[in-house]
Amino acid sequence: QVQLVESGGNSVQAGGSLRLSCAASRDAYSNYCMGWFRQAPGKERDGVATIISRGDRTYYTDSVKGRFTISQDNAKRTLYLQMNSLEPEDTAMYYCAASFNVGCYGFGPDDRRLLGLYNAWGQGTQVTVSS
Predict the structure, then answer these.
(1) What is the pLDDT of residue 29?
(2) Where are the beta strands (DSSP E) in the chain?
(3) How many CB atoms lie within 10 A of CB 44?
(4) How far, in Å, CA of 29 to CA of 8, rounded?
(5) In this structure, are residues 23 and 112 in contact, taking their beta carbons and an 8 Å threshold?
(6) Which one-letter DSSP state was computed for residue 102?
(7) How many whole angstroms from its chain centre is CA 85?
(8) How many CB atoms lie within 10 A of CB 99?
(9) Coil, strand or helix: which one is 37?
């Protein structure tokens, strides 16, 4: 059974930092790509950062470049998102996801087609940034 469990969400002030974690079951970790997505109230779910599972190549949406870092610990089967210099616009539910479709190699976080290539999703963790 594929399972992804996020943690680390919290309420912080602008300029603060958070680290999100996503623990993956053994089956979930046999994937091609993993990523972090976010959805604010009343808005669509958007890609934030993705990582190619073999090779560790990373991709970011423009609004988080230089502030967020995606990484993975294969031994712990855990995906991370280090978020620094948080802004109120970062407020959203953050979701971890895994893709078992090799097509995920061809799309970055800003491409809407990417969401359809992710097969497994976590339940989400809330990040709230106050000004």
Answers:
(1) 66
(2) 4-7, 11-13, 18-24, 33-39, 46-52, 58-60, 68-73, 78-83, 92-99, 120-121, 125-130
(3) 9
(4) 20
(5) no
(6) G
(7) 17
(8) 24
(9) strand
CB 12 within 8 A of CB 130: yes
pLDDT digits (tens, 9 = 90+) for 6-24: 999 999 999 999 999 999 9
d(Cα 86, Cα 105) in Å, to the nearest integer? 28
Share of the chain above pLDDT 70, in %: 98
Q: Which of 94, 118, 93, 122 is nearest to 23 (CA)?
A: 122
CA distance 67 to 36: 14
Contact 39, 22 (CB under 8 A): no
Q: What is the CB neighbour count within 10 angstroms for residue 50? A: 26
Residue matched to tokens 């893709």: 99
Distance CA 123, CA 54 (A): 25
Of 57, 92, 85, 93, nearest to 72 by C-alpha is 57
Residue with tokens 């993993």: 34
Each residue's pLDDT tens digit, 53-87: 887 899 999 999 999 999 999 888 899 999 999 99
